[in-house]
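User: I'm writing a tutorial on reading structure tokens. Could you give me a worked example: one chain, its sequence, then its tokens, then a sentence or two explaining what the tokens reveal?
Assistant: Sure. Here is the example chain.
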Amino acid sequence: MKNEHLKTVLKTIGVFLCLYLFLVGIKGLSSGIKNLGGEFAENILTTTSNPFIALFIGILSTTIFQSSSTTTSLIVGMVSGGALNLTGAIPMIMGANIGTTVTNIIVSIGHINRGNEFKRAFAAATVHDFFNVLVVLVMFPIEIAFGLLEKTATGFGTLLFGSVSGNEVFK
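And here are its predicted structure tokens:
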């Protein structure tokens, strides 16, 4: 009984330690991006001012990294460091959600020589694709037209933490 309790306590401490290290990593990423300089930030802001380009940057970077979590963490660090604004980050995160589906398709294609197994694997992979693409097809135009996600995220940030980077809540 005592041994199980000790394992539970150690696992809980391990989870919080990993979470702490993750947050320290995000802080380090943010500091590193700040040190890249104004020209780097200006180039990113100029490039991501077009939401379609930002969407494709998210798709491409996630396809390269094979991890939407890595891409999203980089985007959060860039927003935190001031190299990227929230308006440019939202389409990039949407693109990351589409880009993450490429891995599933690649894995399903690995089963191409096994008839029914390939059909099931490909069907499961495309469910993920369709869901992410449909969400982007619905939310992307709404975000471009009304800024719903940006306003919601800024509102939550202000509600939970006070002023968010000096930005107005609702422009």
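What the tokens reveal: Residues 2-161 form one domain. Helices lie at 2-34, 38-47, 51-65, 68-81, 86-99, 101-109, 115-146, 148-161.
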